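FIELD: query
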Amino acid sequence: MAARDTRRGSAPAGIHEIGVARAGARGGWKPSSTRTNTPSIARAGAWSQKAVEAFGRIDILMNNAGVNKQLNFFEVTERDWDWIHSINTKGLFFCMQAVAREMAKNNYGKIINLASIGGKGVRGTSNVAYAGSKGPRQNH
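FIELD: result
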């Protein structure tokens, strides 16, 4: 999700897609929610440019990327690992990088990266590949 604060103030506490949409209805926030897969610099850059074209700038990026597959430790294949990490880790990074470049031009921006309890390795919530892709985002 990318958003532009037309009031240029700080984001509301606990911002999320619904909150941004409601604030947008009151005037001031213009939200955009897009499902995209950005595991490459080119895709992330193209997505970022579309957001800039739509808004003029990007003030907030909320990364909520995540895919998972129920597998036990011995079932995870290299293909599973690569698929999970290409979206959950690589895509997240390149999306942040592309948007941060735009934010730096305006000397303003907020990036929020969401994770999940699976990143803490809570039994039954994920697999080793998923936990490995979400864990680095966690504040311990």
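FIELD: remark
The longest strand covers residues 2-5.
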